[in-house]
Inverse folding.
């Protein structure tokens, strides 16, 4: 990897760390810094003699890391300045809403060119300052309107669209509080949203996918890294749109790349082609390198919300087989209340929960899971950096104080701190999210506890029979 690219990655990491967390999330600023991920996104672009006749678009260019890597690949194959200059001038097009990002990309490309040939780059750039969430041409509205006359001629002209769309959620429970008129414009401009849709979560990723396809030629290809929330209900219409208008070349999942993002990512690769009835999708696991193939038509199921379902785990398959049999239900085997919450800490969570796993409290500590932050998808490995201290002495002290306060106020319904059952925390268990439109659960063998956003089911023993069950 070239020193200029290494420096750019280091600068990205440093720049992202300096951005305030709320500003970074409002603008979806999460840079791609792992070269293996960058190369996977770029592998739709073959490096051969034909590349100089292709056009490549990145609609949220950031620091230009994808283009820098592409230029490096071109130079490795064709180490001639006329070739590299021709590639930059004729093949690379980039957009960003932030003028500073456009300038940084141009500077980085110029530095890389200078590094290769020891001379200043004096060629042109194809750069555009534009909010890519706004359609360049509004075909979906009553009056077709050209919003940007410089970009409009480029619609349907690109061979490849690549990148890392900003992750910004609008009008859902992670609402970034944008203008209501903007929401209405998105619903009107984008074909994926049915006219009957009035509310619901919108994410910039949904918009970038459709608008990116608008810029592709027939059979052009798109490759994005996006959040695994793509598999959630909110993306139902996006998935439907992709199933109807593209061949899904590949999904590469099980990626954890962005600092400050609890969930994972996936790389999605698409071909703009609606002749896809018999098309087979390649599913890859980024971590294990395992792969499988699935017929795309299997996912075209309205009753299942067009979910992209696949399975790499033998254990998961066993669970599914067990569900379809006539085995006894949990309720019949455990008629007493076995599904419960963990600790009841009222508004005193900070007295029992800490970032430090080794506080000197003379009591047991457990991993502490907090709702959807920890259990972000079905069967995931729970995510947390919090620790719960099973401090019985502190519990009793607080409860005694609460009791006296409430008695003085004449309140009979006395609230209490409750630390829960340590046998549940000590043994294998299943966590189930409370607030979700579908069952989102996972199995955990760690010494762990949770807040009231999660239900927990445990047999309270760690025997082989219990685990097998």
């Amino acid at each position: 990897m070239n020193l200029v690219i290494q420096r750019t990655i280091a600068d990205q990491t440093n720049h992202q760390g300096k951005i305030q967390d709320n500003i970074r999330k409002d603008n979806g600023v999460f840079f791609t810094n792992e070269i293996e991920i960058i190369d996977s996104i770029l592998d739709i672009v073959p490096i051969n003699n034909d590349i100089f006749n292709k056009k490549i678009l990145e609609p949220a260019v950031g620091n230009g890391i994808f283009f820098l890597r592409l230029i490096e690949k071109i130079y490795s194959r064709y180490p001639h300045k006329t070739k590299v200059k021709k590639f930059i001038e004729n093949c690379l097009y980039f957009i960003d809403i932030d003028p500073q990002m456009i300038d940084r990309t141009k500077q980085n490309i110029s530095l890389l060119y200078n590094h290769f040939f020891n001379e200043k780059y004096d060629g042109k750039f194809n750069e555009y300052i534009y909010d890519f969430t706004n359609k360049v041409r509004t075909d979906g509205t009553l009056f077709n309107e050209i919003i940007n006359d410089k970009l409009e001629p480029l619609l349907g002209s690109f061979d490849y669209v690549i990148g890392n769309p900003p992750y910004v959620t609008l009008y859902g429970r992670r609402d970034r509080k944008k203008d209501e008129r903007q929401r209405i414009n998105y619903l009107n401009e984008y074909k994926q949203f049915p006219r009957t849709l009035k509310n619901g979560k919108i994410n910039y990723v949904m918009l970038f996918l459709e608008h990116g396809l608008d810029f592709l030629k027939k059979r052009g290809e798109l490759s994005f890294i996006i959040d695994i929330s793509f598999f959630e209900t909110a993306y139902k219409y996006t998935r439907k749109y992709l199933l109807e208008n593209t061949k899904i070349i590949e999904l590469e999942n099980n990626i954890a790349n962005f600092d400050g993002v609890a969930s994972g990512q996936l790389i999605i690769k698409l071909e703009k082609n609606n002749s896809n009835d018999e098309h087979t999708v390649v599913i890859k696991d980024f971590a294990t390198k395992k792969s499988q193939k699935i017929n795309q038509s299997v996912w075209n199921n309205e009753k299942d919300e067009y979910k992209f379902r696949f399975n790499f785990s033998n254990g998961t398959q066993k669970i599914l087989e067990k569900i379809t049999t006539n085995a006894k239900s949990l309720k019949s085997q455990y008629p007493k209340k076995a599904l419960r919450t963990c600790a009841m800490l009222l508004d005193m969570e900070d007295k029992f929960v800490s970032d430090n796993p080794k506080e000197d409290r003379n009591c047991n500590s457990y991993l502490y899971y907090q709702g959807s932050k920890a259990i972000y998808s079905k069967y995931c490995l729970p995510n947390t950096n919090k620790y719960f201290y099973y401090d019985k002495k502190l519990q009793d002290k607080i409860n005694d104080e609460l009791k006296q306060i409430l008695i003085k106020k004449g309140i009979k319904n006395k609230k209490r701190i409750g630390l829960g059952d340590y046998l549940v925390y000590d043994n294998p268990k299943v966590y189930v999210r409370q607030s979700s439109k579908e069952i989102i659960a996972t199995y955990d063998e760690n010494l762990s506890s949770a807040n009231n956003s999660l239900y927990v089911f445990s047999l309270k023993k760690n025997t082989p029979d219990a685990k097998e069950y």
The radius of gyration is 26 Å. Confidence is low (pLDDT under 50) at residues 22-30, 172-177, 258-262. Residues 375 and 382 are 5 Å apart (CA to CA).
